[in-house]
What does this fold into?
Amino acid sequence: MGNPPGMSAYRGDLFGEVRANENFRKVLATTGHTQLVVMTIPPGGEIGEEVHRGIDQVLIAVSGSGASELDGDRQPFGPGDVVVVPAGTRHNFLNTGSEPLRIATVYGPPDHRPGTVHRAKQDADADQADVPPHEG
It folds into this structure.
């Protein structure tokens, strides 16, 4: 029994995918319970303050330097760091360095349409159709 339509398994070099990614957001795989996404935040950029209702998020920094903000608490965020953001937590991730901040993130349940690619944050902000699969 396979995954439902739009849902996919993933096997690959995750950190290689993160390092090669030039998009703000690229969904690699979506299942019924989780979603694997790679993100690249340009110098001076940010994900943008947000709160996920009913969705936990795990973010892993692969390269670059930045900061994580969870409910107003700002901490450094760099290669090897992981931040677990429980549902309902106000959060933001910022690039504080001179190189792109490259991140792998897992949502549970999924937060974006399967296959979503946003080249820049402005594209993500403008994408009104990008809703979690369980809300679509």
Notes: The CA atoms of residues 40 and 102 lie 5 Å apart.
